[in-house]
Amino acid sequence: MLLISCGTTRATTSPDAEELTRYVLVIQESPDGQVTHDWRLAEDVDLSGYKSTSSARGTSGRIVRVASYSRDCDEENRQCIKMCMSRPLPRGFGHTTSRGRGKGGKEEWCSKQCWQPYRDCQELEGRQLLEFSAMDEAVDWLKRNHEMILVGSIVVIAGVAFVTVSAGAGLVILAPAALLAS
């Protein structure tokens, strides 16, 4: 009987949505690749080392979007180039259309001007996540994608904002933002 009780895994129960601000979500990957989660009372987890770093960071963390909105980076790039081509070149850049290049030189200049916003758009799309209205849905997604979560990311679960205070080495800890602010 003793062996059976030691070998069983503890069932993880999710807190009620009204109680989420009192809990910390811990997602852990075991050496065999199995990913588990645990809702722990915040008072049982030492968050003192995370409070100062999160408050110093302000609102610069990565925010997980409230609504799913898919951007078309290629279309945004085409519009950027089109808008650039419709405006006159700034002073000192007239040489881009000289030497027989005509509009090709200006188009090349506009493409260079629109390149960084295009790359930023692609990077943001790669990070785009969703807000989760249900805790089970959030936990399932976080367990499947725990390697993509970055420290400082803000994840909204059932209306409560959680900040990723630790990520890496098979362990992700999300704490309620309100708890870190206090």
Q: What's the tally of helices?
A: 6
> Per the principal axes of the C-alpha atoms, what is the gross shape?
elongated
**Strand pairing plus helix content: what structural class?**
alpha+beta
Please count the beta strands (DSSP E, at least 2 residues each): 5
Mean pLDDT, as a whole number? 74
* Biggest pleated-sheet summary: 5 strands, antiparallel
Low-confidence stretches: 1-11, 52-69
State the helical fraction: 25-40%
In angstroms, what is the radius of gyration?
Answer: 24 Å
Q: How large is the share of residues in beta strands?
A: 15-25%
Strand arrangement within the widest β-sheet reads 2-1-5-4-3
Q: Could you give the order of the helices and strands?
A: HEEHHHHEEEH
Question: Topology of this structure?
Answer:
Layout: H1 2-7, E1 23-29, E2 35-41, H2 48-57, H3 73-86, H4 103-127, H5 135-144, E3 154-157, E4 160-168, E5 171-176, H6 177-181
Antiparallel strand pairs: 1-2, 1-5, 3-4, 4-5
Helix pairs in contact: 3-4
Molecular structure report:
By secondary structure, this protein is of the alpha+beta class. It is 38% helix and 18% strand. It has helices spanning 2-7, 48-57, 73-86, 103-127, 135-144, 177-181; strands at 23-29, 35-41, 154-157, 160-168, 171-176. Strands 2-1-5-4-3 form a 5-stranded antiparallel beta sheet. Strand 1 (23-29) and strand 2 form a beta hairpin. Helix 3 packs antiparallel against helix 4. The chain starts with a helix and ends with a helix. Residues 1-11 and 52-69 have low confidence and may be disordered.
